[in-house]
Amino acid sequence: MMKSILVALDGSPASLAGLKEAVRWAEVLGSELRGIFVEDEQRFVYYPAGFSAEGGVPVAAPLPAGELAEETEKVRAEGVEIRKAFMAALEGKSIHSEFIQQRGNVNQILTREARAVDLVVMGRRGRNDPANSTEAGPTTETLIHNSLRPVLVVPERISGNGTFVFAYDGSRGAQRVVAAGTELLATIGAKAAVISIGDDPQLKRDHDQVLKRYWRPYNIEAAFHVAKREGKAASMIVEFARNHNARMIVMGAFGRNPLHELFFGSTTLEALAEAPCPVLLMG
Fold first, then answer.
1. What span, in angstroms and rounded, lies between the C-alpha atoms of 39 and 18?
2. Which among 27, 33, 14, 255 has a CA at the least distance from the CA of 153?
3. Closest C-alpha among 209, 245, 241 to residue 227
4. How far apart are CA 108 and CA 200, in angstroms?
5. Distance spanning both ends of the chain, measured CA to CA
6. pLDDT-derived band at 202, boundaries 50, 70, 90
7. Mean pLDDT over residues 60-87, rounded?
8. Mean pLDDT of the chain
9. List of E strands, the chain
């Protein structure tokens, strides 16, 4: 059972969309909701020219007093607004909640806090990421890689509200995320559709049998589809999701060859950039 949810907040449109999604699931699941705003320690330092450690690594120095005071006040004001948004999203709802505000390394703090919950929710990109890009931000990408919990990545705007689409390839991540996806699916009684991409004629039979047997105690019936790979797998998954008015895409964070994805471009990141709905991931 998912009894605790962490939502990462920075005031960006995507993080506020993530907050709305997190509140919805906390209410449905009866979960505790923890909002977190990390004051990025990098905002309070600068890197003087000519100062570096052995090996040429730049050495940070605190901002000059005036700039430090200005940035501190700016971050304080951001924290106040984010807390207000968090409390406003919970107004009138019977959800036990906690708001956390800490200063430090964003990736390290989020990874640590993610260990203490059942589900992490975050926007696809943060407030400092380029406005004209749809790619997942570096913080989102890092948490997907590091988290031991399922991560629900939410785009700025959500267009689907129907089927749960499971992109299943038999990989470790795909098998692990099935459990989390199934709990969310079963809780709201949504429909399921499975897409497997590959040329192996045995693929459909294997995947059908694994998931059908897994879902039998839940009384979940799903439509199964196997497609030959034509172009990018991510685009095929997203198109399948659009055709099913997907409420959520459920997929492993890595395919069968994590090293290939690490060095030659990840299907996960490509799917995140194109997805019109939240994407639930696990590595």
1. 18
2. 14
3. 241
4. 41
5. 19
6. confident
7. 96
8. 88
9. 4-8, 32-40, 45-46, 61-62, 97-104, 119-123, 151-154, 164-167, 192-197, 222-227, 248-252, 279-282
Handedness of CA 51, 53, 58, 61 (dihedral sign): negative
In this structure, are residues 101 and 79 in contact, taking their beta carbons and an 8 Å threshold?
yes
At residue 264 the predicted structure's pLDDT band, cuts being 50, 70 and 90, is very low
Q: Which residue has the tokens 């009684």?
A: 189
Give the count of beta carbons closer than 10 Å to the beta carbon of residue 112: 13
CA 97 from chain centre, in angstroms, equals 20
Measured CA to CA in angstroms, residue 112 lies from 5, 143, 185, 222, 265 at distances of 14, 10, 27, 36, 26
Distances from the Cα of 260 to the Cα of 6, 196, 197, 254, 265, angstroms: 30, 19, 17, 9, 8
Check: CB of residue 38 under 8 Å from CB of residue 110.
Answer: yes
- List, in sequence order, every beta strand (DSSP E) within 114-267: 119-123, 151-154, 164-167, 192-197, 222-227, 248-252
Q: What gap in Å lies between CA 245 and CA 163, rounded to an integer?
A: 6
Q: Can you give the pTM of this predicted structure?
A: 0.91
Q: Are 97 and 30 spatial neighbours (Cβ–Cβ below 8 Å)?
A: no
Half-sphere exposure of 147 (CA within 13 A, CB side): 32
Contact assessment for residue 180 and residue 148, using Cβ atoms and an 8 Å cutoff: no
Nearest to 119 by CA among 258, 278, 240, 269: 278
DSSP for 60-80 reads -EEPPHHHHHHHHHHHHHHHH
Four-point Cα dihedral 121, 126, 131, 134, nearest 10: -40
- Please say whether the beta carbons of 215 and 182 come within 8 A: yes
CA angle 49/55/61 to nearest 5° reads 35
Amino acid at 160: G
